[in-house]
Amino acid sequence: MEYLDFEQPVKELMDQYKTCSLVGDESGVDVKLACSQIEDKIVETKKRIYENLTPWQTVQLSRHPDRPYTLDFINGIVDEYSFLELHGDRNFADDPAMIGGLAKVDGQSIMFIGTQKGRTTKERQHRRFGMSNPEGYRKALRLMKLAEKFKIPVVTLIDTPGAYPGLEAEERGQGEAIARNIIEMTTLKVPIITIIIGEGASGGALGIGVGNKVYMLQNTWYSVIAPESCSSILWRNWEHKEDAANALKLTPKDLLAEKFIDGIIEEPLGGAHYDPETTFKNVKKSILTNIKAFKKFSDKELVTQRQDKFIAMGQFKG
Predict the structure, then answer these.
(1) Whose CB has fewer CB within 10 Å in the chain, the N or C terminal residue?
(2) Which residues of 112-141 are buried (b: 16+ CB within 10 A; e: fewer)?
(3) How far apart are CA 148 and CA 303, in angstroms?
(4) If the chain, 318 residues long, is cut into consecutive pieces of 10 residues, what is the mean pLDDT of each piece?
């Protein structure tokens, strides 16, 4: 387990607990009471830290290297051996930063689409840290259209610092690919459930983020720009990233209050990486509940509900 700067008090207590257990095992001395007291302190410290996170700490936690990624969520949610990954945009190439495929969840067919980061250095380079090229968004759209053809609900999982900003991506029409996805998703005739499972930055996230319902995991963020990028534009450096995070109102609570999202999915105390199985269970429940609710909707009602939801954003009184 890796620990972030603000998690050091937890790390120190965890080290104490390990030492206590080791002493008991090696010496044969009964240290259950001492270890139990340390366990209580760990829980108290976690509550004090994680229930009072600043926006910047939330951003840091969403990027935790041990946090589950899209493929982890898919494999943790779907019925055993049911996920069939589909590749390619039928135009240029297959983008490893954008993954998708068919699966069954409790017997319900679902098209999963999401941005995928990497664990190792080699895999991170291969997947470009979850930043998709235009062919990634075109692959996502192809899979959405396939789902529409066979009346299969779509679930998108977002964890990206943004679309890939390279020259070759712009040459192949990055902006057009994202814009095309947005407009096509507004008229897709199947339910779309969108969940931010980590970072949700800029158009890179919105390119697969137009859903009938949009949810965020508890320790994630969703914004038009990353705090570091915002700081570099306004202050010409990254030193004000914490101020930018505060101003951007990018936490789940902020976005729920402004009605940009429909709900917050709880994570275990400390974050999804402490107990991935419980996190997967919570996400699975949210997905199935919403799919069941939208089965009552006609094609027209699905499209109208989704369009009205996004049209209502940004309204103001003069």
Answers:
(1) C
(2) bbbbbbbeeeeeeeebbbbbbbbbbbbbbb
(3) 12
(4) 92 92 76 88 94 96 96 97 96 96 98 96 95 97 98 98 95 96 98 98 95 98 95 94 96 95 96 96 98 96 96 78
d(Cα 58, Cα 61) in Å, to the nearest integer? Answer: 5
Q: Which residues lie below 8 Å from residue 34, measured CB to CB, with a gap of 6+?
A: 20
Distance CA 251, CA 248 (A): 9
Distance CA 7, CA 305 (A): 41
Q: Residue 220: what are its φ and ψ, rounded to 5°?
A: -130, 175
Q: Any idea which residue has 């009605």 for tokens?
A: 259
- Three-state SS for the chain is CCCCHHHHHHHHHHHHHHHHHHHHHHHCCCCHHHHHHHHHHHHHHHHHHHCCCCHHHHHHHHCCCCCCCHHHHHHHHCCCCCCEECCCCCCCCCCCCEEEEEEEECCEEEEEEEECCCCCHHHHHHHHHHCCCHHHHHHHHHHHHHHHHCCCCEEEEEEECCCCCCHHHHHCCHHHHHHHHHHHHCCCCCCEEEEEEEEEEHHHHHCCCCCCEEEEECCCEEECCCHHHHHHHHCCCCCCHHHHHHHHCCCHHHHHHCCCCCEEECCCCCCHHHCHHHHHHHHHHHHHHHHHHHCCCCHHHHHHHHHHHHHCCCCCCC
Closest by Cα among 198, 94, 81, 181 to 137: 181
Q: Phi/psi at 203 (nearest 5 deg)? A: -65, -20
Q: What is the pLDDT of residue 318?
A: 67
pTM: 0.94
Which is it for the CA torsion 139, 140, 141, 143, positive or negative?
positive
